[in-house]
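It is worth pausing here to work through a concrete case rather than discussing structure prediction in the abstract. The textbook approach is simple: state the sequence, then state the predicted structure, then interpret. We follow exactly that order.
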Amino acid sequence: MTPLHIGIAACSAEGAALCYRTICTEAPAVLGSHDHPEVTVHTPSLAAYMDHIYRGDWRSVGDMMLASAEKLARVGADFVICPDNTIHQALPFVEPRSPLPWLHIAHCVADEARARGFKRIALTGTKWLVGSEVYPQDYVRPTTEEREEINRIIMDELVRGIVKPEQVATFQKVIGRLKTEAGCDAVALCCTEIPLIINDANSPLPTLDSTRLLARAALKRAIGGIQKAA
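Step two, the predicted structure:
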């Protein structure tokens, strides 16, 4: 009996790598020593994605996601995940044409928030994600100035693997303000690189780690859909 084959349609490397590692390192606790589902990652150039994003061309972003899904289907993946919150804006263009089903990262976060009883959630991520409808409108957004600084940290530093103490301080300040001024009881880390620097140990609020929640949902689906070996 084998778990389903997980396809990862990657965008930025750091978030995708964390998602991949989470699947492979947490699976043995369920499947046994060293065992994890088959995982295939397809990663086009981030520059190509960003060219479309800067122009607001989400249909072309969707075309890139679809191309990844088609390649993943050809190598035997059973379903797809995308460890990038921002480009989920293009998923409605993808799903009707996709050869494989997708797990939605925002649904994974919402399920965890509901399970843990959180009522007022702060949203952190790129400026494109925070200004979108990927997450519910009742999630509390940072100010325009805060969004710009968070976006700079993500796009100029975290996606390049650059980690600095000042980044943590910035996020702590924003999250702390959303806690005290907006009454938030949790913060959703909705850029998949944010968990590289923010977690429950250093955040003013409990965290909803979109990267790991997506990975765990994929692992659960892969194991739940276990197949007989050919």
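Step three, interpretation. Residues 6-104+213-224 form a domain with the Rossmann fold fold (CATH 3.40.50.1860). The chain has two domains: 6-104+213-224, 106-209.
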